[in-house]
Amino acid sequence: MKKFFALMLVLLLAMCLMVGCGEKEQEVDENAEWAPTSPVTVIVAYKAGSGTDNTARVLTTYAEKYVGQSLVIENLEGGSGSIGWTALVNAEADGYTIGFVNLPTYFSNIAQGGVDYTAESIVPICNHVNETSVILVAADSPFNTLEELVTYAQANPGVLKASTNGNQASNHIGAQLFASTAGFEYTAIPYGGTADQLLALRQGEVDFSSAKFADFASFTSEVKVLGVMATERMADHPEIPTLGELGYYDQWYGSARCIVAPAGTPQNVIDFYEAAFKAAMEDADYLAAATTASVTTDYMDAEALAGLLAAQNTFAMETVTALFPAE
Q1: Lowest mean pLDDT: which of 29-43, 151-165, 282-296?
Q2: Same domain, yes or no, for 64 and 91?
Q3: Could you tell me if 124 and 306 are in contact, meaning their C-beta atoms sit under 8 angstroms apart?
């Protein structure tokens, strides 16, 4: 019996040592270099064919060779992005689910309330694009200039309709900045995302929209761009006036699309993706494809993106809230 208890004690001590060693190995693993060993899910909070989806697919196509695994885009549309972003922040923080976040919409959703995520629910990896907003109409619209549109809108308050990508989402904010500084009222019609918003414009359901060039790169002949929301004319489109030179909104406004991970994702995972996407955005083949698709690449590392996220949070809580006082 004594030998039996002695044997059991030895086995128990051996198990304790094994557990201790296992914990030490796990701690070392968390601080070691990391790379995925199976496909990675990339959440896009808008439908396939949308501007966000198109730019994401251009990047992921060329990023796979730097990640070393397939990057599988999962489109989770609805709620002005909130459905996809809720799934993103609730995913395992293990490096196998990352996603694209649209700014300022991510934060304007928070400012409105009714979402289950916060500014602290995500951690930055890198920025992908930074796009200037424009005001556009359908190709067959009777309006050929912003002045014509504004003159009609001022004489007919609330008659003109603008399609948006969601209530207080990025393109709704763009339309509101334009209308509030031009002194006219309009009716905003929210759609499920930019793809549906611009389809409504082209089908004549609405009179104007705010969007970005990449959003309509595949059907530029079907729309007319009347103005850009920048402090100076764009080098690629010098013929298009800024809103400011016509006496309307005179600051830059647009959207950023960045890559983030769920809060709690280990730093070595963030470091891996930051480096992989940086390499992809410097890849000559990617840059050629991005130019063709009107993707305005604007890489920022995780630290710089953290600053942009903070600034966009402030913009949403202060400026956007003031734009929609009755909502």
Answers
A1: 29-43
A2: yes
A3: yes
Our count of domains for the chain comes to 2
Phi, psi values for residue 72, rounded to 5°: -100, 110
In this predicted model, what pLDDT tens digit does every residue of 261-283 receive, in sequence order? 999 999 999 999 999 999 999 99
Split at pLDDT 50, 70, 90, the class of 80 is confident
Per residue, the 3-state secondary structure of 270-300, as one string, reads: HHHHHHHHHHHHCCHHHHHHHHHCCCCEEEE
Say if 1 falls within a structural domain.
Answer: no
Residues 96 and 172 placed together within one structural domain of the fold: no
Section 187-214 average pLDDT: 94
Q: What is the pLDDT of residues 216-248, one digit of tens each?
A: 988 999 999 999 999 999 998 999 999 999 999
* Residue 230, domain extent: 132-246
CA–CA dist 259, 305 (Å, integer)? 9
C-alpha atoms less than 13 angstroms from C-alpha of 35 in its C-beta half-sphere: 10
Q: Do 223 and 139 sit in the same domain of this protein? A: yes
Q: pTM here?
A: 0.79
Q: What is the CATH number of the domain that holds 52?
A: 3.40.190.150
**Angstrom distance (rounded) from CA 59 to CA 128:** 8
Q: Where among 213, 246, 279 does a domain terminate?
A: 246
Task: Look at residue 47 and give its three-state secondary structure.
Answer: coil
Q: Are residues 44 and 60 in the same domain?
A: yes
Euclidean distance between the first and final Cα of the chain, in Å? 79
Calpha distance 20→23 (Å, rounded): 5
Tell whether 35 is covered by a domain: no
Tell which wins on pLDDT, 241 or 168.
Answer: 241
Give the whole-angstrom CA distance, residue 100 versus residue 98.
Answer: 7
How far apart (Å, rounded) are the C-alpha atoms in residues 60 and 277? 9
